[in-house]
Structures are given as structure tokens and as C-alpha cells.
Amino acid sequence: MLNSLTDPLVWDFELFKVIDPSRSNSSLSSVAGTIGYIPPAHTMRVTMAGNVYSFGVILLELLIGRPAVNEGRELAKWVQSHSSQQEQPNNILDLRVSKTSTVATKQMLSALSIALACINISPGERPKMNTVLRTLTRI
């Protein structure tokens, strides 16, 4: 997740940012995390389930080739809407990688199922990180 060999794109997980309400037209007064990586129904507390969600978004970025937020739309929500429409999962993968071989496509689809579990709307249904790691190493 680098835009060059030295500039990281993902660096501020778990940093607390305060939005000045006087400069915002929304009712949100503060947020913990980075837009696009924040789980739905997020509280101000950092949780393991929230970290798993954020990891799932990073995994989606790698598999799909899109940023966490693009044109105001969060990648996780976009993927969830496409997966609920029974769209072929390989249609959302980054073709620059998936079209290289059937093995690559199979591995990406396996990783996509992990990413989808990580971004589950219900925090209690998200896998534990050690399970995610074990599953990814098997792919």
C-alpha cells in the first residue's frame, strides 16, 4: 500500500482525529480512524473487530485495485452491494492480476471470501485475526 517506494498510503489506523463541528455541515463531531476503513456503527472505542474490518478493506483494495473511497463511495459498501446482487465474484477482481492465470483468479477469489468475512456488518460475525492469517497463508 505504497504510492511509491517511500510514501505509504495506509498509516494512520487507530489515530484519533477530531473534526471541528464549526467547519463541518454534518452532525458528526468526532471520528476515530480513516474514512473508508471505519466499520459501520463505529463507536469511539478501538476494537479488534474494528481492526479486522479495516484489514478487510485493505485486502479489498489489493484484490479489486480501487482505493477505500472513490468518488465518495466506500469500497466495502460497493463490494457488499455487488456480492448481495449475486454478481459473479470474479467480475469485481482487478483484471490486471486475475487475468494472468486461473491459479491467480482462484487465489484471489479465496482471499475475497476472507475480505468479505472481515467487513461483515456485524462485528461479532467477523473472524478473529489469527484465523484470517492462517487462512491467507493457506491460499
Automatic annotation (TrEMBL):
GO terms for molecular function: ATP binding; protein kinase activity. Transmembrane segments: none annotated. InterPro entries: Kinase-like_dom_sf, LRR_receptor-like_kinase, Prot_kinase_dom. Residues 1-139 form the Protein kinase domain. PROSITE patterns: PROTEIN_KINASE_DOM (PS50011). This is (rape) hypothetical protein. It comes from Brassica napus.
